[in-house]
Amino acid sequence: MKRFVIKGNICYSSENKELCVMKNGYAVCDDGICAGTYEELPECYETFPCYDYSDKLIIPGFADLHVHAPQYSFRGLGMDLELLDWLNTHTFIEEAKYQELDYAEKAYDIFAEDMLKSPTTRACVFGTIHNEATLLLMKKLENAGIKGFVGKVNMDRNSPEYICEESPEKSAEDTEAWIQKAEKFENIRPIITPRFIPTCSDELMEKLSVLQKKYHLPMQSHLSENFGEIQWVHELCPDTRFYGEAYDKYGMFGKRCPTVMAHCVHSTEEEIQLIKKNQVFIAHCPESNTNLSSGVAPVRKYLDLGIKVGLGSDVAAGSSLSMFKAMTMAIQCSKLRWRLSDQELTPLKVEEVFYMATRGGGEFFGKVGAFEKGYEFDAVVIDDSNLRHPQELGIKDRLERMIYLADDRNVIAKFVNGNGFLRDKDGIKRTFFGGNQ
């Protein structure tokens, strides 16, 4: 059983997004579940192994609600293009290469290794249309200790021939075969993944809806990212009033279908109300929205309405897996929207983006993203000693500096559902704490 204690400066978000801080306190893991945090370790836990990270920062693992694994290989390219041109010029060409497993092996090795080194512990990941490559991706993320969802992408129209599935029937047939083979994984689970409405026919969406209900799976896709995309959906789906209805009419927009939608930059009032009503999660992807000139999502409005919002790196439109960078850009973009176009929406604060990166996004995976009793024990240990300062800083100030200045090298240990990983001189190696694995 995974039973241990870690000691250090503990930081996590409460339900109301306030920062909970405990200086050199104790966080207890009991069989992969958090048994609480304590200023003084209770006697009943004194027999647990204690890993001493005194004066280091201990935070919940980050949840990346939107990342494209096959795009990791071309980060930083094509950033002078908008969404639809970028897809045709770079994305589809790259994703077609994953038909060859040798290429997928090399590319996904890099992606999984960098995910392991990052402070991310949970993720919603897009693969490609290829079954075997997507299963390979799931295997590599499972071996890297990440928990979350991976999707075999579906697209049967309005796509280059080399990346377009031959029919709705074949796409659905392949998807079901992939779902059944994916049952062997413990921590990486399948998620229904229509790329977005423009590349998925009505017949395909109907068939994916059947699979979603049959296997009780969550769903991920894109929503209201770019003006050209939104207009295209309007033309393709004249029976719907807004983009979100094109998913909702198939029963794949929240409610009994747990759903995460990336972007929501230009959602209408009607769409926003449906998102809230159906408890759809929004994956806010500030860097990719900036790089592809899509705009700045009204995240302040979503939070004030009580909508579920997390963060996404959205590689490769985003240039980095770093959720620290996603938090920083979420703040900066909200400031620009407030200053330049919408002064009713006040900028985001550090406490709010930290909540979105941990507890807010973590909720999509269950009780994840906080050090409260009953939560899965996901934690990241941060060493900020390289960020020297002429005076002593408080824990909250140190956390804020980490959000703006940190990179993966500051991660010295991480825990996913109680499984631990240590950084050594060659990087991060997998070491299970307190377990029998």
- What is the averaged pLDDT score? 95
Cα shape: globular
The quaternary structure here is: single chain
Sheet with the most strands? 8 strands, mixed
Radius of gyration: 21 Å
Please, could you describe this protein's structure?
With 437 residues, the protein is of the alpha/beta class. Helices cover 34% and strands 24% of the residues. The protein has 13 helices and 18 strands. An eight-stranded mixed β-sheet has the order 3-2-1-4-15-16-17-18. A hairpin with a 2-residue loop joins strand 2 and strand 3. The longest helix has 18 residues, at 323-340. The chain is globular and about 60 Å long. The protein starts with a strand and ends in a 7-residue tail after the last strand. The mean pLDDT is 95.
SSE blueprint and pairings:
Blueprint: E1 3-13, E2 19-30, E3 33-38, E4 50-59, E5 62-68, H1 83-96, H2 101-117, E6 120-126, H3 131-143, E7 147-151, E8 153-154, H4 168-181, E9 188-190, E10 193-194, H5 202-215, E11 219-223, H6 227-236, H7 245-248, E12 259-263, H8 269-278, E13 281-284, H9 286-291, H10 299-304, E14 308-311, H11 323-340, H12 350-362, E15 379-382, H13 395-405, E16 411-416, E17 419-424, E18 427-430
Parallel strand pairs: 1-4, 5-6, 6-7, 7-9, 8-10, 11-12, 12-13, 13-14
Antiparallel strand pairs: 1-2, 2-3, 4-15, 15-16, 16-17, 17-18
Summarize this, please?
This protein is of the alpha/beta class. It has 13 helices and 18 strands.
